[in-house]
Amino acid sequence: MLLTYFLKALDIYTKNPLINSFTLGVLYEKIGIEYSTVEKYEEALKYFQMTLDIFQSFHEVESSLKTLFFNLGRVYHHNNDYDNALIYTEKYIQFELMSILNINYQELSQAYDTLGDIHCQRKNYSVALQNYENALESVEKVDSISSTEEDRSTLIQQYQK
């Protein structure tokens, strides 16, 4: 549903010369997220790449790049393009760890889990295990994911597989 509105907005934005490229990049990213949500990963990748082209020209948007790297890593992983999934997921983790005060531990745990999956696919089991342990550590730091100990215990058990 949102995808329809975002595509309509894109049509309007591309006809308006007053819209700046950063705003257009944000819209491309939202479209990419929506395509990813409905598992149309090739379309998602196309919009994420357009976003990346725009965001890289703005040096002050590191937080926007961080989220984009997370999304690119996930899409490449879903497409079984492990080389690019590794590149973007590792870039995301680097950005996330640099933002000491605002670390999103939930996304960080997902990123480590993705790296674990990729290394497991490549039979790099010791590296995979280290990433799964990092994912578990991140999950343990999440205070806002669940309000009950039981929910939290279920999450932790997921990462102990």
Annotation keywords:
161 residues; TPR repeat; mainly alpha; repeat; globular; 78% helix; 8 helices
Largest sheet: none
Terminal CA distance: 35 Å
**Cα gyration radius (Å):** 17 Å
What proportion strand? under 5%
Structural class: mainly alpha
Mean pLDDT: 85
Task: Kindly state the percentage of residues in helix.
Answer: over 70%
What is the 3D shape? globular
Query: What's the total count of β strands?
Result: 0
- List low-pLDDT spans: 144-148
| Number of distinct helices | 8
Order of helices and strands: HHHHHHHH
Description:
With 161 residues, the protein is mainly α. The chain is 78% helix and 0% strand. It has 8 helices and no strands. It has helices at 2-15, 21-37, 41-55, 62-78, 82-98, 105-121, 125-141, 149-159. Helix 4 runs antiparallel to helix 5 (82-98). The longest helix has 17 residues, at 21-37. The termini are far apart. 32% of the residues are buried. Residues 144-148 have low confidence and may be disordered.
Layout of secondary structure:
Layout (H helix, E strand, L loop, with lengths): L1 H14 L5 H17 L3 H15 L6 H17 L3 H17 L6 H17 L3 H17 L7 H11 L2
Helix pairs in contact: 1-2, 2-3, 2-4, 3-4, 4-5, 4-6, 5-6, 6-7, 7-8
InterPro entries: TPR-like_helical_dom_sf, TPR_rpt
Keywords: Repeat, TPR repeat
Protein name: Tetratricopeptide repeat protein
